[in-house]
């Protein structure tokens, strides 16, 4: 097993879900200090490491989306892919951190920017204010080998809430459940035909003319396509199982939400998924993920969504459209954790990165991604810096199916080493 994979295995045993990654922060700070790197940690827990006179900054985030059994991870390798049993793996973005650890073992004169809480709204990146010295930043958060990312979507989380009240219900009582769907990343996987558990549940209730909703708990994370959704309902007619939907009759006779019918209609009418395709880039242009719906015991309803678009105007349009939609159902709406799109930019640096990718993989392609990369936020803070993003092949991030191709990790690391050398030689010539 390579040193990078060994480092990654170490990381998998240190819990680092978003918002609760202090143990990993402490580990990484100690790791860097032991290898002679200068260390700074800011108020939002971003980590900045440097040694010597660096000409390149490597950037990644150190939190992960915890799904299933995570952060308790038991990894295994199958046909060249590393996976975790019943859990998200955290290769997004832990494999990048493992590469950085290997470079620190080698004593490379580099800057490293390790950002906090990327997976819950690019929180760390939004507050970065270190005195970065390098003219170039290489982000290591992309998920397809041999591709150089030079642009990304902007996004915003849109939440809707309202207070309902409970009234007497009638008829049969059922638990209606959609469980164990595959899930996926709400950006890069939104066009892959992955079913949303919330939409499957909503369509079943709508088609069976269920109007009495006692409770609902659906979805896992704002940036994950929902894999699970459960509702307690009352119905005048009998309900039965269908594909993906399991129905269980209950003996309870609970009260129901007075506006439960409107909530079910809202789920039915919500346009989850891709709203527009970017033909030039070959990726979604605008999308929205209906991520989480919950109702508490006092009748408080909360809906959480994440919208993405490849430019600011379209992000504003989908935001206003969603706001108006929820308003029609009496919800109070908030826009949270907005981050900018990274406009595709070809530069001498992206060309250099592309050449090194070509030399290792025998092919290269400049791309934009329908997901948030921290480059967009950081580029606004460091306008003179040039950016590119690469990474090993990772499939189904933000889900319990997450896997990383180990050969791709090694080859991508070879590209990183060559980029480091080429940038250093270029700076010496200048």
List keywords for this structure.
430 residues; alpha+beta; 2 domains; nine-stranded antiparallel β-sheet; six-stranded mixed β-sheet; elongated
What does this structure look like?
The chain has 430 residues and is an alpha+beta fold. The chain has two domains: 239 residues, Aminopeptidase (3-Layer(aba) Sandwich); 184 residues, no CATH class. Helix content is 29%, strand content 31%. It is built from ten helices and 25 strands. The strands form six sheets. Strands 9, 11, 13, 15, 16, 18, 19, 20 and 21 form a nine-stranded antiparallel beta sheet that branches. Strands 1-2-6-3-7-23 form a six-stranded mixed beta sheet, sandwiched between helices. Helix 8 packs across helix 10. The longest helix is centred in the C-terminal third of the chain and has 24 residues. The protein is elongated and about 80 Å long. The mean pLDDT is 96.
Summarize the structure.
The protein is α+β, with helices and mostly antiparallel strands. The protein contains 10 helices and 25 strands. The mean pLDDT is 96.
Helix and strand layout, with pairings?
Blueprint: H1 3-12, H2 22-34, E1 38-41, E2 47-50, E3 56-61, E4 75-78, E5 81-84, H3 91-105, E6 111-115, H4 123-126, E7 136-139, E8 147-152, E9 154-163, E10 166-167, E11 172-178, E12 184-185, H5 197-207, E13 212-218, E14 224-225, E15 229-235, E16 246-250, E17 256-257, H6 260-269, E18 273-278, E19 283-295, E20 300-309, H7 312-327, E21 332-339, H8 348-361, E22 365-369, H9 374-381, E23 386-389, E24 394-395, E25 403-405, H10 406-429
Helix pairs in contact: 1-3, 5-6, 8-10
Pfam family, one: M20_dimer
InterPro entries: Peptidase_M20, Peptidase_M20_dimer, Peptidase_M20C
Keywords: Hydrolase
């Amino acid at each position: 097993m390579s040193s990078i994979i060994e480092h990654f295995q170490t990381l998998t045993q240190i819990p680092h879900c978003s918002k609760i990654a202090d143990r990993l922060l402490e580990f990484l700070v100690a790791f860097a200090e032991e290898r002679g790197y200068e260390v700074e940690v800011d108020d939002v827990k971003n980590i900045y490491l440097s040694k010597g006179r660096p000409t390149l900054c490597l950037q990644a985030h150190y939190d992960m989306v915890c799904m299933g059994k995570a952060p308790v991870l038991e990894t295994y390798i199958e046909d060249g892919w590393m996976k975790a049993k019943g859990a998200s793996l955290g290769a997004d973005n832990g494999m990048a951190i493992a590469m950085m650890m290997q470079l620190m073992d080698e004593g490379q004169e580099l800057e490293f920017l390790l950002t906090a809480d990327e997976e819950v709204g690019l929180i760390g990146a939004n507050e970065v204010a270190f005195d970065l010295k390098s003219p170039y930043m290489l982000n290591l958060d992309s998920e397809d080998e041999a591709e150089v990312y030079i642009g990304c979507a902007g996004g915003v989380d849109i939440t809707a809430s309202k207070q309902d009240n409970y009234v007497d219900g009638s008829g049969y009582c059922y638990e209606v459940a959609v469980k164990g769907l595959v899930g996926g990343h709400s950006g890069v996987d939104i066009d892959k035909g992955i079913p949303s558990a919330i939409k499957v549940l909503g369509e079943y209730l709508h088609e069976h003319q269920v109007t009495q909703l006692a409770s609902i708990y659906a979805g896992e994370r704002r940036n994950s396509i929902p894999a699970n959704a459960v509702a307690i309902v009352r119905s005048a007619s009998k309900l039965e199982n269908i594909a993906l939907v399991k129905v269980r009759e209950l003996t309870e006779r609970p009260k129901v939400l007075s506006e439960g019918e409107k909530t079910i209609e809202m789920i039915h009418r919500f346009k989850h998924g891709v709203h527009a395709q970017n033909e030039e880039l070959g990726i979604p242009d605008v999308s929205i993920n209906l991520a989480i719906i919950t109702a508490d015991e006092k009748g408080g309803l909360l809906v959480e969504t994440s919208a993405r678009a490849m430019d600011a105007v379209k992000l504003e349009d989908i935001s206003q459209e969603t706001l108006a939609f929820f308003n029609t159902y009496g919800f109070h709406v908030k826009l949270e954790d907005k981050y900018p799109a990274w406009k595709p930019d070809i530069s001498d640096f992206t060309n250099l990165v592309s050449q090194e990718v070509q030399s290792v993989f025998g092919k290269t392609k400049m791309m934009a991604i329908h997901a948030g990369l921290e480059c967009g936020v950081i580029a606004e803070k460091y306008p003179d810096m040039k950016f590119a993003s690469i990474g090993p092949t990772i499939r189904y991030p933000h889900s319990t199916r997450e896997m990383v191709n180990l050969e791709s990790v090694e080859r991508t690391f070879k590209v990183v080493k060559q980029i480091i050398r080429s940038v250093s030689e270029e700076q010496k010539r200048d």
